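Practice problem 4.
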C-alpha cells in the first residue's frame, strides 16, 4: 500500500509559531524575510563560496503565486535565484490576469533561511515530540471531511428514496415520483463507488513516525550544511509548499505531515 498525498485542506494550520505542538504552517512577512536575509548574508560572506555551477533550484515547483495560483518559475540572474510569475503567461481572459502585476518576484535567498529555520525548530530535540504528536494527530483526519460529505449526501439520497417509497405506499401515484426517484437512485449509484475509492485512513503510531523522520537523516545538518540537491530532496519529503502573496510580501510555508509517510510501504 502506498500512502496518498494529503489534500491541501488536510494540512494542519497554525498562525502561532511560538507553539510548536500545533505548527505545520509558518508565515513570514517582508520584515522577517529581510531580517533573516541579512543574517544569512553575513553568514554567506563569512563562509567560502560553493561552486555556483552545480546549484539546483531548491524550491522548484514548491512556490505558488497567490495571485494566479500557478507555480512560480525559477530563474537565475547573475548570482541570484528568483522565482517568478509573469502576467504575460496567463491566458488573457483568465480572471487573475486583471489584477496580476506584470511580474511577481521572490528571491530564493530571502526565503530559504526562513524555511530552514522553521524546519530546524520543528525537528530539534526540544520540539520533536510535539512535532511527532502533531503528525500523529493530523493523519487521522486524512480524507475525513471528504468522506463525511459523501456520506451525508449518500444518506440524504437514501432518505429521499425511502420517502418516495413511503409516499407510493401511502397512495401517491408512482408516475409523479419517477423523476425524483431516478435522481435519488442515480445519486446513490455515483456516490457509493466514490466512497469506496477513498483510501482507508492510514494511522501510523508515534514510533513509526519517529522512524520515518529518522529515515530522512539528520534533518538539522542537512538544513545547515546540505547541498541544494539534498535540501531539495528534504523539502520534497516534507511536501513543502510556499504560497507567496506579493501584495503583502508574505510567504506562507507549510509541510504536509501525511506525506512524510509517503516513503513507507506497509505490507498489503
Ligand atoms: Zn501569478
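Answer key:
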Amino acid at each position: 500500500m502506498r500512502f496518498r498525498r494529503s489534500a491541501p485542506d488536510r494540512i494542519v494550520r497554525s498562525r502561532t509559531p511560538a507553539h510548536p505542538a500545533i505548527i505545520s504552517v509558518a508565515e513570514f512577512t517582508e520584515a522577517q524575510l529581510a531580517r533573516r536575509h541579512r543574517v544569512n548574508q553575513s553568514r554567506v560572506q563569512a563562509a567560502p563560496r560553493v561552486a555556483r555551477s552545480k546549484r539546483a533550484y531548491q524550491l522548484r515547483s514548491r512556490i505558488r503565486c497567490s495571485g494566479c495560483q500557478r507555480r512560480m518559475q525559477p530563474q537565475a540572474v547573475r548570482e541570484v535565484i528568483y522565482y517568478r510569475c509573469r502576467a504575460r503567461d496567463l491566458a488573457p481572459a483568465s480572471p487573475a490576469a486583471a489584477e496580476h502585476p506584470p511580474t511577481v518576484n521572490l528571491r530564493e535567498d530571502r526565503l530559504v533561511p526562513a524555511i530552514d529555520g522553521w524546519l530546524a525548530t520543528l525537528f530539534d530535540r526540544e520540539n520533536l515530540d510535539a512535532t511527532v504528536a502533531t503528525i500523529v494527530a493530523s493523519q487521522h483526519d486524512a480524507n475525513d471531511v471528504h468522506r463525511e460529505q459523501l456520506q451525508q449526501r449518500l444518506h440524504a439520497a437514501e432518505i429521499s428514496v425511502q420517502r418516495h417509497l413511503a409516499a407510493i405506499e401511502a397512495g401517491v401515484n408512482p408516475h409523479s415520483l419517477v423523476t425524483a426517484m431516478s435522481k435519488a437512485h442515480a445519486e446513490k449509484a455515483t456516490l457509493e463507488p466514490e466512497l469506496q475509492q477513498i483510501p482507508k485512513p492510514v494511522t501510523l503510531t508515534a514510533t513509526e513516525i519517529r522512524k520515518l523522520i529518522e529515515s530522512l537523516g539528520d534533518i538539522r545538518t542537512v538544513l545547515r550544511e546540505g547541498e541544494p540537491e539534498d535540501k531539495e530532496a528534504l523539502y520534497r519529503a516534507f511536501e513543502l509548499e510556499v504560497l507567496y502573496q506579493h501584495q503583502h510580501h508574505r510567504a506562507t510555508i507549510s509541510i504536509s505531515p501525511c506525506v512524510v509517510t509517503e516513503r513507507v510501504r506497509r505490507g498489503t
